[in-house]
Amino acid sequence: MISNLSVAILNGVVWGLIMALIALGLNMIFGLLHIINMAHGILYMLGAVVAWYLIEWTGNFWLSLVIAPIIVGGIGMAIERGLLRTIEDKPLITIICTFGIMMAAQHLVFMTFGGTPRRIPIPITYRFPLFNLEYPLMRIVIAAISVGVMIGLWFFLNRTKYGLWMRAVVQDREMAIGLGIPVNKVYMWTFVLGSGLAAFSGVLAAPIVYVDFMMGREILIMAFIIVIVGGMGNLEGSVIAAIIISLIQGIGSLFVPPAVATVFSLAFMVIVLLFRPQGLFGE
Fold first, then answer.
1. What pTM value is reported for the model?
2. Which of 39, 50, 73, 145 would disulfide-bridge 196, Cβ 3.0–4.6 Å?
3. What residue spans of 80-182 are helical by DSSP H?
């Protein structure tokens, strides 16, 4: 039991860190652009699918970890510039538009990638002993990379000019315009960064889960739960909420089927909202 519990906790932390990256991108886009991006799960799926193609061509997972987020970030730029730019102040229309993007992209991937779930080769196959079981080293590497990206994101938002611009726009858009901050560029690069984070998460998750055209839907629901529990617009809250919810699911899966364990996450969200409607760390 102790061995299984240890594995469940480790799995919960690893998956929580991956989910945190997805939720951070979703929360950044909402916090700055006030867009409820229904296409965010698709960007996660595209990251994994693009990585699968890159690995098929190059055989190099680490190369796909760099290139796939850049490609999907470029797609995010096209979405922001080409579609959302003119309707970003119309919340209902942006929801419908991003939902349409989700459906269209999902269908396109189905036509090109097919409906058969695929596996990518795991780049690190070593397993280390954990009590009387073995645990994949690759998952620890994934967790370490996720933490590294979060530290880099924190540094970017708090120690660079562009990051400070983003925070200034969130605080007071009109004041930021008055100070000469290029708000439109900040919007665009925020969407690109959020899209890239979703794609990066998709690549990190690819060695753990099957890659298929439907993988973005469930993730989108979980990402919204995490953002709501952590507090809309609160990035630190998203990280903590992601780990708590993933631990609830991971440990819950020891006692009930994984699909049923998702109910625990929803119950946790309901309880949090009953006592903290603004989320655990929302204002």
1. 0.92
2. 73
3. 91-113, 137-159, 161-171, 173-178
